[in-house]
């Protein structure tokens, strides 16, 4: 016995709708986390010498992703290895990106808990140690504004 065409089509549409409801939504690469993006914007405004700034964090049940950045293509991307190191060790990861320093630091909330990572790319200037110290001081200023990890990732 053959089903009428409209019954088969209706079944297919119902199956598709059911699958769409239960499928996980795709990660939105351009979707920003407003609080984190505001921190990036503040930091970049205060320190235009930082050529790139990004904030990443572990989103429960999803993994580590870029939350906010001066490079919009980094938002929603999985964390790079230099971002994961500060999350696990609490220590800076300092490398080079061309002629620039690529500095990833653990990002703390106002209570001192590690809530993410901030990555900053900047020219090394005349004194590498002074440049790193300047980056650390700039990050400490924005950390004071972070009440909790949930606020950062919202």
Tell me briefly what this model is.
The protein is 40% helix and 26% strand.
Describe the structure in your own words:
- Keywords: Signal.
- InterPro entries: Sensor-like_sf (IPR029151).
- This is Cache domain-containing protein.
- The protein has a single domain, classed as Beta-Lactamase (2-Layer Sandwich), CATH 3.30.450.40.
- It starts with a helix and ends with a helix.
- A hairpin with a 5-residue loop joins strand 4 and strand 5.
- With 154 residues, it is an alpha+beta fold.
- The chain has 5 helices and 5 strands; from the N terminus they run ααββαβββαα.
Query: What is the C-alpha radius of gyration, as a whole number of Å?
Result: 21 Å
CATH topology (fold) name = Beta-Lactamase
Low-confidence stretches are 6-30
Number of strands: 5
Order of helices and strands: HHEEHEEEHH
Coarse morphology: globular
What's the total helix number?
5
- The strand line-up of the biggest sheet is 2-1-5-4-3
Q: Helicity, in percent? A: 25-40%
Could you give me the name of the CATH homologous superfamily? Answer: GAF domain
Average residue pLDDT: 83
Named CATH architecture: 2-Layer Sandwich
Largest sheet: 5 strands, antiparallel
Task: Give the end-to-end Cα distance, rounded to a whole number of Å.
Answer: 54 Å
Protein name: Cache domain-containing protein
Organism: Acidipila rosea
InterPro entries: Sensor-like_sf
Keywords: Signal
């Amino acid at each position: 016995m053959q089903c009428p065409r409209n019954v088969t089509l209706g079944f297919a549409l119902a199956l598709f709708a059911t699958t769409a409801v239960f499928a996980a939504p795709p990660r939105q690469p351009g979707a920003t986390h407003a609080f984190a993006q505001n921190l990036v914007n503040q930091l970049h405004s205060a320190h235009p010498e930082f050529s790139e700034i990004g904030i990443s964090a572990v989103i429960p049940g999803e993994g580590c992703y870029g939350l906010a950045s001066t490079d919009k293509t980094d938002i929603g991307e999985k964390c790079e290895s230099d971002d994961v190191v500060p999350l696990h060790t609490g220590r800076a990861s300092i490398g080079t990106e061309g002629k620039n320093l690529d500095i990833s630091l653990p990002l703390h909330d106002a209570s001192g808990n590690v809530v993410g990572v901030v990555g900053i790319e900047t020219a090394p200037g005349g004194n590498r140690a002074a440049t790193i110290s300047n980056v650390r001081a700039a990050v400490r200023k924005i950390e004071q504004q972070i009440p909790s990890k949930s606020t950062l990732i919202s």
